[in-house]
Amino acid sequence: MARRLRMLGTTSREGKCPTLYEDLDTGEIIVQGRTVTDTSSLSGAVDVLRHESFVAVPRDLLTRFTPRSDRPRGGVEFIADETFGSYFESFKHTAWRFESRRGYASDRDSQEYQRWLASGDVEANPSSPWYANIERQVALGKRIGRVRVVDSPLTEEQRYLTAAATVDGAAGEDIRHLWRPDAQRLQLPGEDFWLFDSRYALVLHFDDADEYLGAELVEDPVVIARFCQIRDAAWHHAVKHTDFLHQL
Q1: Could you tell me which residues are beta bridge partners of residue 29?
Q2: CA angle 91, 92, 94 (to 5 degrees)
Q3: 8 A C-beta contact, residue 175 and residue 169
């Protein structure tokens, strides 16, 4: 049976191995590293079974990225859907999104998407709860932003989101774009999450058909520190929306 893995972190340089994963179904930690073939040199090893092997990885891979929070076995615990919006009202300073997928089923199924396909335009809707809340939070001095990883050429869904970004930007959200080869060069993971106040996050889960499954609340300081590192690298190399439109 195929394993569904989530990359926790890597100390790899130029694509050379050491990476830590979590099995989303079993909660097991999967280590990718250099196989130790000379097991006779491992004098302290005990109870080694025939099907087991050893992998050598840098110590800081485990100290930096091993999860310390308890996770329920058999799957991920999602927040109640009706509480999702409250996170975008209760944060104190910053809300920041890393967006890595090539498309989202929720976009494709929306009326706004169908109108965009027909007209090529995305209309602002200041009365929508999302748009109105962005304006309200920004007026309070808070910052809302995101980096969207994009492909060349843009997928149809990314073209739609690029058009929508102009509308959301008018409400006060700072949206920037990062070409996928640059994200890969920076070793940024294929994850989607919202990071709030550099203290907690909502990790967004999707299936292979881009259907939204739910949001997982993460407060583990080690994971949050990694998300902050992702944010800093992505934000530094991302292109502002107006400049991105000129590139297109």
Answers
A1: 22
A2: 75
A3: yes
Percentages (nearest 5) of helix, strand, coil residues in the chain: 35, 25, 40
3-state secondary structure of 104: coil
State the residue for tokens 């179904």: 25
Contact 195, 98 (CB under 8 A): yes
Q: How far is CA 192 from CA 63, 188, 227, 228, in A?
A: 23, 11, 10, 13
b/e sequence 232-246, b meaning 16+ C-beta within 10 Å:
ebbbebbbebeebee
Q: How far apart are alpha carbons 214 and 75 in whole angstroms?
A: 12
Q: Give the burial class of 157: count Cβ atoms within 10 A of its Cβ; 0-12 exposed, 13-18 middle, 19 or more buried.
A: middle
Give exposure, 105-115, as e/b (b: 16+ Cβ within 10 Å): eebeeeebbee
Of the candidates 243, 200, 191, 213, the residue with the CA atom closest to the CA atom of residue 93: 200
Structure tokens given for 84: 């999702």
Instruction: Pick the closest to residue 96 from 134, 143, 129 (CA basis).
Output: 143
- Mean pLDDT, contiguous 10-residue spans, the chain (248 residues): 78 72 82 81 75 80 61 68 93 97 94 91 81 94 97 96 90 96 94 97 94 94 95 98 92
**Of how many residues is the chain composed?**
248
The Cα 161–Cα 191 span in angstroms is 18
CA separation for the pair 221, 174 (Å, rounded): 26
